[in-house]
Amino acid sequence: MIKERPIPVLEVFGPTVQGEGMVIGRKTMFVRTAGCDYSCSWCDSAFTWDGSGKDDIRLLAASDVIAELETIGGAAFDHVTISGGNPALLPQLGGLIDGLHARGIQVALETQGSRWQPWFADIDDLTLSPKPPSSGMSTNWEVLDDIVRRLSEAGRRFCMKVVVFDDEDLAYAKLVHERYPGIPFYAQAGNDNLTETDPAIMLPYLVERYEWLIGRTMADETLRGIHVLPQLHTWVWGNKKGV
Amino acid sequence: MIKERPIPVLEVFGPTVQGEGMVIGRKTMFVRTAGCDYSCSWCDSAFTWDGSGKDDIRLLAASDVIAELETIGGAAFDHVTISGGNPALLPQLGGLIDGLHARGIQVALETQGSRWQPWFADIDDLTLSPKPPSSGMSTNWEVLDDIVRRLSEAGRRFCMKVVVFDDEDLAYAKLVHERYPGIPFYAQAGNDNLTETDPAIMLPYLVERYEWLIGRTMADETLRGIHVLPQLHTWVWGNKKGV
Questions:
Q1: What pLDDT score does B241 carry?
Q2: Do the strands B58-60 and A106-111 form a parallel or antiparallel pair, or are they unpaired?
Q3: Is A198 at the interface with chain B, CB within 8 A?
Q4: Is the pTM of this model over 0.90?
Q5: Residue A25 to residue B77, Cβ atoms within 8 A
Q6: CB of A220 less than 8 A from some CB of B
Q7: Average pLDDT estimate for A115-139
Q8: Subunit contact A217:B186, Cβ cutoff 8 A
Q9: Which part of the chain is the Radical SAM core domain (chains A, B) (predicted)?
Q10: Within 13 Å and on the Cβ side, how many CA atoms surround B74?
Q11: Phi and psi (nearest 5°) for A114?
């Protein structure tokens, strides 16, 4: 019997609310995997790839991850979000997804869309979140096209999400929406203040960023079917980790 | 030819973001109808039923409503939310819904579930929002059961939403979720401060109310598949009307 490859896990926490995107508000548990092929300038989870979190990485079997989810979350959840880093680097996640489904638990996952995995077609709430110019990364459109094509063929519910910090990012968001017109599209106001800890400063600033994005998108005829959302968890918990 | 019955309209505005529930963040136009069979203690649109807005009511044909939506929203929208009051008091809304669909525009509607209309089955995003004890209203469960049964038979996407102000409301929310277990369920933190105009006071208060509701629901095993959301528009615009 071939030994299952373990999963590099950095955090397991919850239940909490999903703060972004297509299932915003959903009660969910989080599993955060280590490792990323990107290094976005404004990444809010840089410890997953910049080396600073390396001592916290645990190599766990899928069954261990599920056991830990059940220890922490008890019977209070039926939804798990796999986050990163880029979980799409890990072919071995298929076993975890199958194990969760076997327990009646739904699975959400977000990835930048730089790498395909066959288990994408099994994710209940899949978000492809290509990164805009402000990230410093560049999009491989051929790979992204291929992922969108495969998911569409599989008849799978998924959405596109672009984080927007400035007008250049917004132009990129429009490009993405025009390239994949049939796919539900989310624009998210970016948080470019990752160090502020005072909610009295943080909260009005984030609301102002969200209001800016609303102002830039509402009258735009190329963004008719758009959702515009904040990162709700940063409004509640600021830059705190593990909530 | 039978003359179409006009629609009592109080407000037409947008495009803006939907601030609540199953399509939170969605770019949408709003049509607010006059009249309600309820008079919730904390209603944020009491002008639709308490007489204070009666001089603003216009009796419009469906085609006039659509023309006004297009004048205000141009070609920048593909989604309209019909709100109230209780729009379910108006059998004549079917023509408006058909007219919007004919233009490729999706329609959302929220109602307390006190009255069935055949056009419920045509709504793209329908929210049934029975009112908890703090409203001072009482739920007719037979009517609500009947509406849920008809919508389920029609294979229509819809959800349940309960606004929660206190623990008694939360107990009611659980009752609703247990009664309709297969239906996507949203709990929404209530805004019991309808007069505050200072965002520096309003915003932290609303965040605190939302955090309270998260705290009361996350560990609860009877609320596994729940979404917990704020009224996002009140976080951005406070108690302002028409945004």
A1: 73
A2: unpaired
A3: no
A4: yes
A5: no
A6: yes
A7: 97
A8: no
A9: 23-239
A10: 9
A11: -100, -5
Name the CA dihedral angle for A71, A75, A76, A82, rounded to a multiple of 10 degrees. Answer: 60
* Residues in B touching A16 (Cβ below 8 Å): 214, 218
Q: Which residues of B are annotated as a binding site for [4Fe-4S] cluster?
A: 36, 40, 43
A224 touches chain B (CB under 8 A): yes
Q: What is the ipTM of this complex?
A: 0.94
- Asked if the model's pLDDT at residue B172 lies above 70, the reply is yes
Which range has the worst mean pLDDT, B9-13, B53-57, B188-192? B188-192
Using CA atoms, how far residue B52 sits from A202, B35, B56, B57, B234, in Å, is 38, 12, 9, 10, 22
Helix ranges (H only) for chain A are 62-73, 93-102, 141-153, 167-179, 199-217, 232-237
pLDDT 10s digits, A111-120: 999 999 999 9
CB B25 within 8 A of CB A227: yes
Instruction: Enumerate residues 6+ apart whose C-beta is below 8 A from B129.
Output: B21, B110, B111, B112, B113, B160, B161, B162, B163
* CA distance linking residue A182 with residue B152, whole number of Å: 26
Q: What is the pLDDT of residue B221?
A: 96
The answer, yes or no, to whether residue B1 has pLDDT greater than 60, is no
What is the SS3 assignment for B24?
coil
Residue B115: in which H helix or E strand, if any? none
Q: Which two tokens stand for residue B34?
A: 């006059």
Of B77, B214, B224, the CB nearest to A17: B214
The answer to whether the CB atoms of A224 and B17 lie below 8 A apart is: no
